[in-house]
């Protein structure tokens, strides 16, 4: 028996500029520079998914899906830019920045610009989140936080 | 139908997914049995597929993804860890897909498992995009291996 059906699991807005900030994003301590804390359940990671053209994805759940931005970072200068093209700061140039977002009921899928199996990710150490567009104090965990990404080739959360 | 609000976007593309769910495994619509019915119960398959056509000019990479297949009676579904969709049997495997929408733009994802055996399958992935009359297509080809 063949069954044909269409399930709309989500329909939402396109490009909106309004930001809402979560009330529960208050990790116990802050990090900055290259330091990071263990990941929380609100953050997931996939090294390579067909939904992202084979690239890696960061999943954000709960209040974290309201974050302003998320990237992965290497150590050193221009750590969220393509090391072969550090003069370009846009997401299109970077394997570490979000290329596309997909909104699902349980989480937001942030598609990055390279596969977690690629050489680009060998030097990646952390997932970095800005909870607000204007970070004035990177030690303020309501504004900025970094979560360690130890295994770039495995699913996390 | 779920409706959630997206509060992000800016220069990025923000999309939603519409899942077109084919269903059914085991028996075909005329009552005959499929020659290669999908696995019974739950199994995990690791897809390794190289880019065979880069037609959309996006950042694109080899797909290395483990999916979970679940068969319950006549129903077959695939969980990609991102979405769970129904799958439709074919003459030598099964196919699953879904649609992503972003305003006037759509992307249709189609993944085909063919020459399915107990432990392996050939895999073909096609992502067809259409945005205001401009179409392009990315394709991947490779294999899937049962990992449990």
Order of helices and strands of chain A: EEEEEEEE
How are the strands of the biggest sheet of chain B laid out side by side? 2-3-4-5-6-7-8-9
Unreliable parts of chain A: 1-30
DSSP, total strands of chain A: 8
Summarize the structure in words.
The complex is a heterodimer of chains A (157) and B (148). Chain A is mostly beta strands and 157 residues long. Chain A contains no helices and eight strands. In chain A, the strands form two sheets. In chain A, strands 2-3-6-5 form a four-stranded antiparallel β-sheet, with no helix packed on it. In chain A, 43% of the residues are buried. Chain B has one domain (21-27, 40-146). Chain B has strands spanning 13-23, 41-54, 63-72, 75-79, 84-89, 94-102, 105-114, 120-131, 134-146. In chain B, strand 4 and strand 5 form a beta hairpin. Chain B has an eight-stranded antiparallel β-barrel. With 148 residues, chain B is mainly beta. Helices cover 0% and strands 61% of the residues of chain B. Chains A and B meet through strand 1 and strand 5 of A and strand 1, strand 2, strand 3, strand 5 and strand 6 of B.
Write the layout of secondary structure elements.
The complex is a heterodimer of chains A (157) and B (148).
Chain A: E1 3-8, E2 43-46, E3 57-60, E4 69-74, E5 100-103, E6 108-111, E7 124-130, E8 144-148
Antiparallel strand pairs in A: 2-3, 3-6, 4-7, 5-6, 7-8
Chain B: E1 13-23, E2 41-54, E3 63-72, E4 75-79, E5 84-89, E6 94-102, E7 105-114, E8 120-131, E9 134-146
Antiparallel strand pairs in B: 1-6, 2-3, 2-9, 3-4, 4-5, 5-6, 6-7, 7-8, 8-9
């Amino acid at each position: 028996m063949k069954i044909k059906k269409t399930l709309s699991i989500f329909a939402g807005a396109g490009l909106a500029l309004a930001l809402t900030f979560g009330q529960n994003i208050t990790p116990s301590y802050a990090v900055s520079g290259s330091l990071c804390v263990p990941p929380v359940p609100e953050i997931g990671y996939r090294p390579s998914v067909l939904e992202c053209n084979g690239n890696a994805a960061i999943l954000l759940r709960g209040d974290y899906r309201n974050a302003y931005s998320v990237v992965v970072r290497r150590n050193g200068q221009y750590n969220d830019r393509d090391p072969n093209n550090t003069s370009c700061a846009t997401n299109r140039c970077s394997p570490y920045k979000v290329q596309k977002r997909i909104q699902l009921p349980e989480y937001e899928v942030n598609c990055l610009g390279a596969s977690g199996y690629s050489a680009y990710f060998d030097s990646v150490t952390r997932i970095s989140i800005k909870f607000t567009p204007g970070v004035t104090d990177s030690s303020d965990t309501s504004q900025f936080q970094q979560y360690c990404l130890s295994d770039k080739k495995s699913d996390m959360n | 139908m779920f409706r959630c609000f997206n509060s992000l976007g800016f220069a990025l593309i923000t999309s939603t997914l519409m899942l077109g769910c084919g269903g059914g495994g085991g028996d075909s619509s005329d009552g005959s049995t499929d020659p290669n019915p999908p696995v019974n119960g739950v199994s995990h398959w690791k897809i390794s597929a190289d880019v065979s056509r880069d037609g959309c000019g996006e950042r694109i990479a080899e797909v290395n993804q483990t999916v979970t297949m679940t068969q319950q009676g006549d129903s077959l579904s695939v969980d990609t860890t991102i979405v769970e969709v129904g799958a439709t049997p074919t003459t030598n495997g099964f196919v699953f897909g879904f649609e992503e929408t972003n305003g006037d733009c759509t992307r249709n994802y189609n993944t085909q498992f063919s020459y399915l055996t107990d432990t392996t399958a050939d895999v073909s992935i096609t992502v067809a995009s259409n945005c205001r009359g401009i179409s392009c297509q990315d394709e991947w080809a490779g294999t899937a291996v049962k990992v449990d």
